[in-house]
Structures are given as C-alpha cells and as structure tokens.
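Hi support team,

I've been running sequence recovery on a batch of backbones for a student project. Most finish fine, but this one hangs at about 90% for roughly twenty minutes before it completes. I'm not sure whether the input is malformed or the queue is just slow. I've pasted the structure tokens below so you can try to reproduce it. Let me know if you need the job ID as well.

Thanks,
M.K.
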C-alpha cells in the first residue's frame, strides 16, 4: 500500500503534482539497508533509504527523485516512516527544564506541530539587496545537504560556510563565481539571504516538541533526538 502525503512544501517547488508523490512503509530490506547507519553516513543513508527498491517492489518514495525533495519534506517523510512502520510513540529520557529531575515521557509523534510553506511561495524567490540589486534563491534540497556534508569532510567548516548558500542562488554563474560574490557581499545583504532560508524553513517542528513532566506537572519542550536509533527503535521499545 502506498500513501500520498500532504507534504509541508505543498509540492510548490516541484515539477510534478503533489498527489503523484507517494510513500510506502518500511520493509525488512529497508531496515537491512540502515543496519550500519551512523552520524557520519546519515545523509547518504537516508537518501539511499528513500530510493530503496526491494525485490519485486517499489521504492520507498515514488513520483519524484528523492534527492530533489526539500529538507523539510524529507524530515516529514522520515517521521511518517517512523510512525507508520514502527510506532507513533517515542519514549524519551530527559532532564525536566523546570524541576531538573531526570524523567521518562512518552511523546506522541503524531502530535508534533509543523510549519508549511506559504500559499504564495514560488521558486525562484527574489530578494532585493540594500543597493537595489536582486538575487534569486531556492530552498535547499537533499542533494545540497549531501554535497555540503562531503565538502565539509574534505575541506572543513570554513570553506563550506558560503558554499551552502551559493548552492541556493539561481543564476547562470558557477559555484566558485557565486562564492566569490558572497565573499564580497556586505554582511547585511548576506543576512537577507540567510533570512530567506529561515523564513521559509518548513516541516515538523522537532526542536519544539511538547512534554508534560510527571513529577512537577509543568509543560515543557524538548528537541527530538533525530539520531539513527530514533528511526529504527529496538524491538523491546516497540513492544
């Protein structure tokens, strides 16, 4: 069975209809693919998972090349896979931000709030810099995140800082030319480019997940630990 999801992007940035993008729940072959999932290979493994086609079956995501998905849509799909394939309940251990006691809480993943793209959003998105010049931008995709991760491993964080922003510029220039442009850009204008990505960030709000402390009864918030063990919980946790 395949499901067509109401993605946070609303399909506004894709060249295919939203209803044509479908997802299936995980199978044993998919879990096998993730058996060596670590923080170092996270980005590539998640992409391989979304593209994975088990024998005589369909890939996890159909209707679009998964690497073209926005980061917000990817997070939404991964959360959906966790819920549909395993359980909607995530057992978290944390220190309450109010009473500072160590507690255990059950988080209902289906109740996590999400942010969607504005109805009028479209790509490329034009911003106007302080001198009146214009820059066209697009949202980050999975393939961008993988490129950044690979470059960071090779060249370090400093050389990657502007590279990521350069990937989001829509023009006919090369990446080195865009990086040179950004290096000479006033930081106030650079902030406008970063603000674009902040304003149109979308997807599940995994850093603002509500919980109720069983000891002091206060309502707090936690950041969902989207680590490898989150996507594939243990058998005892599911039971």
């Amino acid at each position: 069975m395949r499901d067509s999801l109401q993605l946070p992007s609303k399909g506004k940035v894709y060249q295919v209809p939203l209803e044509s993008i479908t997802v299936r729940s995980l199978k044993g072959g998919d879990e096998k693919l993730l058996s060596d999932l670590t923080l170092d290979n996270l980005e590539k493994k998640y992409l391989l998972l979304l593209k994975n086609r088990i024998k005589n079956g369909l890939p996890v995501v159909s209707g679009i090349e998964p690497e073209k998905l926005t980061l917000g849509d990817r997070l939404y799909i991964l959360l959906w896979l966790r819920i549909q394939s395993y359980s909607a309940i995530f057992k978290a251990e944390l220190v309450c931000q109010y009473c500072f006691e160590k507690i255990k809480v059950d988080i209902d993943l289906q109740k996590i709030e999400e942010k969607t793209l504005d109805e009028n959003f479209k790509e490329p998105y034009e911003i106007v810099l302080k001198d009146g010049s214009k820059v066209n931008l697009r949202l980050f995709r999975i393939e961008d995140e993988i490129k950044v991760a690979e470059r960071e491993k090779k060249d370090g964080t400093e050389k990657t800082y502007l590279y990521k922003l350069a990937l989001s510029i829509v023009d006919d220039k090369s990446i080195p030319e865009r990086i040179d442009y950004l290096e000479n850009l006033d930081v106030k204008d650079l902030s406008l480019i970063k603000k674009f990505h902040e304003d149109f960030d979308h997807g599940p709000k995994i850093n603002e997940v509500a919980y109720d402390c069983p000891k002091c009864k206060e309502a707090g918030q936690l950041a969902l630990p989207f680590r490898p063990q989150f996507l594939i919980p243990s058998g005892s946790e599911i039971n």
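--
Follow-up from support: It reproduced on our side and the slowdown came from queue contention, not your input. The CA atoms of residues 57 and 119 lie 35 Å apart. No action needed from you.
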